[in-house]
Structure to design on (174 residues):
């Protein structure tokens, strides 16, 4: 997934890589490298103004204007990691409504399958097994997801929810 610096978020957990794939700590001038990255982030996520995440960005901005209290690479790497968490949280909040809608859709589909089982419409064991597996999978993922911070990659992914919905929908109509 591209990051604010043009690199890849998966390229180093907790570090936003720059366009050339270099981390802040690898830069000859970490203060300048982080300041450039921060400006890009600030401009991109300014629509989040007045959110609790925006206050974190403003706090990072304030720290950026202060002289480092330790070795610059260490200091700016820590700021970079804090910025990474804030950006991931903002991205997570943006995806949350879509994930909630997909969870609702999958639950509805599972309920329809279970109703069909109760009324005896289900004669196919494959359909029954698929509905029960989807229900079990969703319950487990929701439980784990509830303990994952927004700045971490989600356990319950929209693509996985889509796959389950398509799988059950195709079985329902066959």
């Amino acid at each position: 997934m591209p990051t604010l610096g043009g690199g890849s978020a998966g390229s180093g957990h907790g570090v936003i890589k720059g366009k050339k794939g270099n981390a802040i700590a690898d830069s000859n001038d970490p203060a300048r490298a982080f300041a450039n990255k921060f400006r890009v982030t600030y401009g991109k996520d300014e629509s989040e103004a007045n959110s609790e995440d925006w206050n974190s960005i403003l706090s990072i901005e304030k720290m950026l204007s202060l002289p480092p209290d330790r070795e610059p690479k260490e200091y700016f790497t820590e700021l970079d990691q804090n910025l990474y968490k804030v950006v991931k949280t903002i991205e997570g909040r943006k995806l949350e409504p879509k994930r909630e809608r997909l969870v609702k859709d999958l639950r509805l589909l599972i309920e329809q399958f279970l109703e069909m089982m109760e009324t005896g419409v289900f004669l196919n064991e494959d359909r029954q097994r698929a509905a029960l597996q989807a229900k079990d999978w969703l319950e487990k993922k929701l439980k784990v997801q509830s303990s994952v911070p927004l700045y971490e990659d989600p356990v319950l992914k929209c693509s996985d929810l889509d796959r389950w919905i398509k799988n059950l929908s195709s079985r329902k109509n066959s």
The chain is about 65% helix and 0% strand.
